[in-house]
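Email to the structure team, subject: glutaryl-CoA dehydrogenase (ETF) model.

Hi all, the expression group asked for a predicted structure before they design truncation constructs. Nothing fancy, just the tokens so they can compare against earlier work. One-line instruction: predict glutaryl-CoA dehydrogenase (ETF), return tokens.
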Amino acid sequence: MGSPADLLDLDAELSDTELATRDRVREFVDRRVRPDIARWFADAHFPRELVPELGELGVLGMHLEGYGCAGRSAVEYGLAAQELEAGDSGIRTFVSVQGSLAMSAIHKHGSEAQKQRWLPRMATGEVVGCFGLTEPGAGSDPASMTTRARFEPGAEGGDAGGEWVLDGAKRWIGMASFADVAIIWAKVREPQDDGSERDRVRGFVVPTSTPGFTAVPIEPKLSMRASVQCDVTLDGVRLPADAILPEHPGLAGPFACLDEARYGIVWGAVGAARDAFESALAYAQGREQFGTPVAGFQLTQAKLVDMALEITKAQLMALRLGRLKDAGRLQGHMISAGKLNNARIAIDVCRTARTILGGNGVTLDHSPMRHANNLESVRTYEGTDEVHTLVLGRHITGIAAFR
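Reply from the structure team: attached below.
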């Protein structure tokens, strides 16, 4: 039976395979996340024991082809993200960092040797990855990053025996304190055909055991408490010549990965909103005031209707983007539209759901306020409302208003 928030029978638009994927992930969340998520959130604990189970579930890099990855469709990945975030944004964020960022960077931009070395073990969860782009002074403007990489040739000159040396700092890097490998983006001074030099952003595969790599969790947090975000310091980190990702130098490299993560957010936010709505609905149907179930009051029904309408519209947007992505027709501004809209409405739904729960809604016995707190982070990362608004403004007007 579909959710009461599905006002248009959107389940009928999904294939049997898509429904099976959704239901399999939903069962996992019901069994392994819901019973403990309140405690994990309260204790600021990420359940690392779930990592190999998520690998076995097939959701780590599930939209990637080959190298032990599941090769599922964009819609299936979206449905998985939606169900994971219905459990908690922190769990979906881990899957996103692992698959859409770290694994995607290697899959899109890495050498064959890098893919063979890392991707199969990342797909099973044996190896955990992180993605280092954001810096203390460079969030929405990654072009202003100050992390640098320089190449020191070997004794014979050229690449043989040479090393890359990385120096800099990154911030808000998910899972970095327990990751086995980090994808670090840094500026490299590269010669041009005319004899000049210019900075280019390049990606590097950095085993986190490398001397000079340090990751410290950012604490305390009011959001994403069942997840880990870190400050990363790179102090003379030395890497072999083949640590560089050979494909797509420039910011197009990390941006392609960010688009994958943003796409997952479009779906994930719907899951959080739906879970908050269902929690509020169940409470309203069971709690009586003035001799009447709270769900029987007109003002409460108005809130429930407004929430269901927004969730249904957000689900339509997510499904449309998924179909476009599977058809190879998804464009960047479309992802911005989905991320901006769905993260924004999800927070509003969760806050409204909390009001139906009354004072009980501020406890961790109920999910809406936890979801709302998490969504403050989801709304910010992978592009703030302001950035996505300007992306859409540029698409509509043809004029970039970023500077």
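The beta strands are 129-132, 148-152, 163-174, 181-191, 197-207, 213-217, 229-240, 288-289, 292-293. The mean pLDDT is 96. Ping us if the truncation boundaries need rechecking.
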